[in-house]
Amino acid sequence: MRAKTETLAVFLFALLAACNGRAEMTVACPADAAPQVRLAAKEVARYLYLRTGARPVVASAAAEKATVALSLDPKLGPSRYALQSDGATVRIVGGDPTGVLYGAYRYAEKLGVRFYLHGDVIPDARLAQLPKVDETGAPLFSVRGIQPFHDFPEGPDGWNRDDYFAVLSQLAKLRMNFIGLHCYPEGGVGPEPLVWIGPTSDLDREGHVAFSYPAQWAHTGRDKMWGYAAMKTSDFCAGASQLFEKDDAGPDVQDFNGVGDLLRAVFAEARHLGIQTCVGTETPLTLPKAVQERLKAQGKNPADPAVVSDVYEGLFKRLATLCPVDYYWLWTPEDWTWSGNKPEQFAATASDIRSALAALDRLGKPFALATCGWVLGPQHDRAALDELLPKSSPMGCINREVGHAADEPFFANLSGRPKWVIPWMENDPSLVAPQPWVGRMRWDAADAVRLGCTGLLGIHWRTQQMAPNVSALASAAWEQPWLPASYPRTPSEPVKRTFGALGGSVAAFTAPVADTDTPAVYQTVRYGLSGYLLEVPNGRYAVTLKFNEPHYREAGKRVFGASIQGKKVIEKLDVFAKVGANHALDFTYDDIAVSDGKLRIDFESVVEFPCIAGLVISGTTAGVNQLPGQAFVRRINCGGPALPGFEADGTADAAPSAPKERAMPVKDFYLDFARANFGDEIAPEAAEIFAKIDGVNLPEPATWLDGPGGIRVEDKPWTEIRTRYAFVDALAALRPQVKGAGNAARFDYWLNTYRSMAAMAELGCLRGGLDALVAKLKGDPAAATQALAARIQLARLWETMMTFQLAATDTPGELGTVENLEQHNRVFLKFLTRHDEALVQALGHALPPEAEVSGRYLGPPRVTVPTVRTHVAAGEKLNLKIVALDAAPPRSVGCFWRRLGAASFEPLEARLLGRGVYAAVLPSAADDFEYYVRVETASGQALVWPATAPTLSQTVVVWN
Length: 960
Fold this sequence. Notes:
By secondary structure, this protein is an alpha/beta fold. Helix content is 29%, strand content 22%. The protein has five domains: 2-137, Chitobiase/beta-hexosaminidase domain 2-like (Chitobiase, domain 2); 143-217 and 254-476, TIM Barrel; 500-648, Jelly Rolls (Sandwich); 699-851, no CATH class; 862-959, Immunoglobulins (Immunoglobulin-like, Sandwich), CATH 2.60.40.
């Protein structure tokens, strides 16, 4: 029945075309068009074919006779476009070739197509007629893009060449023009192979390195990287092993020369698509130990700024020669966002930036230097780097507090230079769970306009999970019609510098505190800070530091030093060792001079975080005009509110900020999202559900536990928690109403994603119950039997969660989620097995076999292609990786392909790589083509990918 309906739609559209005076549709493209304009013509033809079933002809026909005509009009301006229906012809005009390409993709959206980082969404139902259009497009930001972060398997650590190429194609469709990458040169996650560090003497003419050091991205054989235990994928449970063809899963290349060749191809493709590229490291530049030793052996001092500049020259020359970039960005250090920074740390960063600028000058400036980072600049003045950098250098930063803070308000203090704001499209503490932040993306984009930012980027790891967020951010970079009337539209005023605590977090306690008449002061503390910068009149003062140890119950757990006005006053203080827990401990230092209106107190960590409860500054101000000084006293309740005689604590970089939720209207977005992804039948109801869980309304079953995405252990039973996940049942209730194979497949992805999330939350409750039972083992004999039952139930529920997760594993990002759940949660954090030894001891025998998780796949059979490319170069062979999941090996896995719109498909057998993973190589193509995958399961069931095939197969444009 469906095939007859599709055939009728094609016939009706052909009839409509004939009635309009055309026997076939034509896309007019100038014969001498630039590559991007030629690509735009092919893309328009492809999407018309997908939406109507009839393939247009791309030719240099007269524009007035064309269905769609492409042209240039420089008066529009770079990257801008205009869409206009002119009788039976749609005109797509661009201010430059990139503008034409953007106009083509915007027209595809008018046809009902939607674009995301993981791929396109083509509605199941065909168009009966082409829409009328009348629109001009101009970006609100000159730089728009993404910052996929290296360090976890969920992100670009797991990407290969085809993955980068696929993402670049989607960026152009989203009308984005930037991709930036960050590299850790050393430390717990480094060295990473993105950026090689070394002098020019260690390079050959092609930019390949003759000397290097070990480097790697995340792979399953790597141990103790952000809390991921090394693990063979064959030991993954619930059939997850079938997703991987080998035990050590990871990217294809990890050595510097291999990665350099990869980036050369990737960055060249980006340039063809009008996408700017950027890589970078944190500043000051970290020299890997092997590089330091090599420099010392050559008689060079690695700490010498001139030597550092020479190393920068080698680093930059390699990039310019082997894999040219548009920008190299220096990231402000990560510690600056959590612990603040000391003056000498800022001085070291300033020196490092000068070394980098000098190196670029010697090379003739092959690319621009930019800054980015965890904060915009040092805490004494977040805009301080503005005075150090040339005005051509963009300055940027990610939002603080892993995105829970709004855009950096100190962007308003910068002028005359590019400014790039980077909201978090997702955060790493919740990396195994969905994070719909459409309202937040819209707020941050609107805020960025007020702050005068010229760039809007999004930091992320996953792609398909981020579909709503990236779509919202991308569209908000062009227009913001959803802004409420109440939202202020005037430019943000520059922020005045304030004084107070330099970083740190606050905590309050109720335990009584001994040895003090003001216990309330000691019941709040600020910890993890780097110090205080206080506004104090010039004069001489006694400074009292008030301490308490409210947390630790043994010596050696917290040790730190302190300096006042740059002079060390405390070497190594262990409050517990001196007075015990919850005892006041004061130190007073006399004759402290203030000559510039600022009193600086610095703390230095020796073990764990410094911690202070209060400050008192008392003395006499300096006299003015021969007048005597005045008595002055200032008391601060560190980490707490105002108390009698004490003022409330504050931070030195405090600035006006948005509410934590930062919510903009989202119902319009989710209605469009639901219509495109699930069909009209359930769109209003699905949109209502998605809008209600957007932002802070969605529960978070995972957090940072020795690494990203640790499942929260709850002290409440599931019966109390499950109401927070009632939306999953409401979503499931819509499933019977979904019409169309594509709509159903996309709906099932989100339904299974949220089912997995709910199972994760239930696991946290069950594990909390198991923890409580184990605590009773010594005094309650019956607790052992109950604990064993809970432990077995925990194993079964883990299999359930993994089965839902596997049903929603379609991209490299979800493969990384599987790795996280197995390596980080199940093995490293011992989520299932933490109490096994205690249970065995209490029971007097080994745990039964049913306490183990099964390795067998427990879900329905499915097939997916994790990496979907829609562009290839002429003559390029397209490599497909196919994953077929089932409890038994399939009878056959094959690929079927044809020239776009041809009469029949040609079969191509897929080759088994290992387990459930197959490979197919499509022949070199000179013309656009389409393909689909077909699997016959062991039980004889036929599966296809995409779900709409062969009526709507996967289409690919060939261009050069």
